[in-house]
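Consider the following input, taken from an annotated entry for Heavy-metal-associated domain-containing protein (Candidatus Merdimorpha stercoravium).
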Amino acid sequence: MKQYIFRTNAKCSGCTARIDAALSPLLSAGSWSFDLSSPDRTLTVTDAPVSARQIEEAVRSAGYRAELLSEK
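Applying the prediction step yields:
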């Protein structure tokens, strides 16, 4: 399983709620978190059973951007 860190354009809890709804079908609950205080407004996904591209597409489907910054 991989850990991904994405830069997003999420700005508030409403934004993250919409992204959460898009990620829920792909990832188990609690496997992602947001840091909106970061300049990159990061989304960190741990133990990801899917690819970074699938996560980016899910975030886009919610109306937001996600750019992969780091993969471990």
